[in-house]
């Protein structure tokens, strides 16, 4: 019992001890171990803890000790106390009054890293996580942070978020960025700051959304504008392209030119392109465009963003052809002197030279300067040569270019007597080597004599023409009256010497005579010295014969000739020596004419019979080669031979050939037929080497033979095509450009797809029981073998085939592989070629048009001016670049923009232009095939005339019905040949001071087109006067246009009256006009003396112009007024006379130069100077008439009054 109580006591003590034990419910631990935070030591104690003691150690040194309540759960160390890298220990002891429990925790202070980032804008504000920025504006932001550890900081941006074109300074944190149009909208950028802790660096991130606000960007040139060079007369176009980041299209183009030149223009060709050119014919600059032009192009997008750029356009001149002043037809008379002047100018002021294409006219240069070159054509005495050559071509050249004119020189012919020349060299003359001079002619008896007298008349070559007649004074020697030929054959009785007078007479009766001295000499005929023997010769043997002839005349000899095609007899020796060929063998003899000729024309002939017989010829075997012989492969070979005798007729020993053969070696392999055919199929018993003799013989026993050696080979296995490239069905539904085994294609074919304009390589792998080198390959396209080596690669092993634009449809590519023993295998690609549409092509620029009435230009858009224009290559079946008659265009043509000067109607490839207003418009043409569109370059339509409107009338027919038709009623118009150029200047100029005169001049274009190359010159009938044109050359005067200039005249003598003739020469069209100005220089004097001087001038003016004679009465009235000292009245009368005479002169000139169609023509604006003069003249004449009439009435009234006074 006592023991049990003791056990209970122990148990109670234990329970008490353990029941009252203090402990940590949560172990001691340390959090936030960086310098940027408090160090927190945490724990949880059991509820019985009454006191907690906490001791902190920095490394091993005690930092602090604190006693806390039993309910405490943590203890702190301020971040200002600890530093990175220190080791801190937190020791916690729990106490419940009786029991103490202790735990510790330890930590090393870690790197704290940078603080949170701030992004500061240019104003110093933190942008936070969102800000707006504008496109194309440069921005800078500063990334800012600190580090509690005092570490260095580097800045950056997460690479995947760095905007294109942006950058950040890793030291200063400055972020620079100019947003672009492509970055419009949200751009999330992650900024980073990293400390430089060597062990555990820490990075802080901050994500900011930059919202880029769109700003319209100015368009820009792409590429930049470059300086351009153009050449006068050569088409010039400069295509420029603009771009806009926002695609605010279309871009508008405009240009300015410095100095101003309205002919340099720009036109849009698309939304982004334009073309700069010259608004002239053919888009080519002219002479007035030569120089350097600063062209500024301004571009504007649809949001009014604009940009401009300048470039220099340099136009270089070319050498211009000189301008030959129009030359009138000239007149002259044979036997008289003759001269005229020619003038020319050169726009480039080059040195000029003149020439004429007829040597009988001499040109003497007077002035070679290009500003006014001149020459004289002077002939002292005109001859028949000049009469004959009345049309001449006069040319002026500057050394490289020319201008010329054909001029008619109307030289009147004077009749000339005919003439006989002693020498006659006509081929028809007998013995022409000795009978050329009519003063020493020789004829021989028995030989026909002919001699043509060389007579003519110089007038026969002229425009007047003439005929001559021949006559002889000796009837024994008649002469043909027309041809002048003397013909005769005389015998021995006529031997002797004769003098014959030959006369030739022309139509006017003029004649000329010459003596012919003729000697007739006796002559005998040559003869053969022997009897001519007929002979027989043989084929391939020499045939020889010697003919011998004699002529008994002294100093004469014989020559030989024949008429045979077999040989040519030796002309001197008379020997025949030749070898006949079988071709001349014939059954009957040849009859050959052998002729003896003497030197005087006598001849003697005889027939010679020549027989040519055949000689048997040996047959000739043609060269042949036995083919490769393989078991089970048939051999077929035709061997041929020739024999010249085969073609002979039977009567001439006809021949025929027969072949035979025998085996030289033991085995009989084949037999040749009599006609030379070898035809058999070797078998296995023939395998081996053999020799054969092959012989051909003719019917005469002649033969030829040859021994041939050959080998018969065993049969081989056919090549095995194992793989092919590419492949399709049945293995694949699509074309696969890869290799495939042929076991996938039991029928040894595959179906693939292709398109036009596509290259496909066809390939294969093939094995054989012979060496690969023994294989040959043949490729076929639609069963036609391909032989083009450019398509066959690797010794024909591979085919690279181009399916052109004519390939659409089902095609076959077949490969056959042969070994060297005739065995072969094939594979076929069945190819479905799909059609590929091609865009239309503009082969040549559309032709600029000049239109003066409604016109239809057939095939203008397809083939015009001998040039192909728009053409769809798919319509051009034969690919010759022309739409042929069997080909049809599928293109649809439209033109834009609308032409403001005419109505344009497109029908198929035809263009109809209906003029509405004179002027020019620029258009483009589009050609489309439904899928593609091709646009032409800028094309000019120039409207030069708008014809009068046509009227429509309606006609009715009887029978109760009516029909309406359009009838074109032409408006009657007087036919008038337009005068291209008119020079308008004052007719009479009077001045009183010895100063320079400046005379205004107007040039008027009355032609139906522009005038080009107008050059002005001035001519004076007084000496020492100098002049200068303000502008003396005009490159062009537009249709209906005018140009103004002035003529400055100086160095004249005071009191001298003279004339100035102004000439204007037009290059195109060829034309010239002139205007004459009368100059009166009067010395300034007292009023009375001045009026008297004017009277003298007025009287001279009336005397020189008959149309002004009616004004003499008024002039006389002015003299009476002068005598009465009524100077004002006299001045009025004299001025009226002068102005009235000017009016009459101008009126006469107008009548001579142009008859106007109606009163409107008189009031044409370009003749205003003339009509002002007319009205002024009429005004003064009216004043004078009124004055005279008034004075007459006053005088009469005075007389009547005097009479009444007397009466009373």
Topology:
Blueprint: H1 2-19, E1 24-31, E2 39-45, E3 51-58, E4 61-69, E5 74-77, E6 87-95, E7 100-108, E8 118-120, E9 130-134, E10 139-144, E11 153-157, E12 167-168, E13 174-177, E14 185-195, E15 203-213, E16 220-221, E17 228-231, E18 237-243, E19 252-258, E20 264-268, E21 273-278, E22 291-300, E23 306-316, E24 323-324, E25 330-333, E26 338-345, E27 353-356, E28 363-367, E29 373-379, H2 384-388, E30 391-397, E31 402-412, E32 419-421, E33 441-444, E34 449-452, E35 454-456, E36 468-472, E37 485-488, E38 496-506, E39 511-521, E40 527-528, E41 535-538, E42 543-546, E43 549-550, E44 558-562, E45 575-578, E46 590-598, E47 603-613, E48 620-621, E49 629-630, E50 635-638, E51 641-642, E52 657-663, E53 677-680, E54 688-698, E55 703-713, E56 720-725, E57 740-741, E58 749-755, E59 758-767, E60 776-781, E61 784-785, E62 792-793, E63 798-803, E64 809-818, E65 824-834, E66 841-842, E67 849-851, E68 855-857, E69 863-864, E70 867-868, E71 870-871, E72 892-896, E73 902-907, E74 910-915, E75 919-928, E76 933-935, E77 939-943, E78 981-984, ...
Parallel strand pairs: 9-15, 17-23, 25-31, 33-39, 41-47, 49-55, 58-65, 67-77, 79-86
Antiparallel strand pairs: 1-2, 2-5, 3-4, 3-6, 6-7, 8-10, 10-13, 11-14, 12-13, 14-15, 16-18, 18-21, 19-22, 20-21, 22-23, 24-26, 26-29, 27-30, 28-29, 30-31, 32-35, 34-37, 36-38, 38-39, 40-43, 42-45, 44-46, 46-47, 48-51, 50-53, 52-54, 54-55, 56-57, 56-59, 59-63, 60-61, 60-64, 62-63, 64-65, 66-71, ...
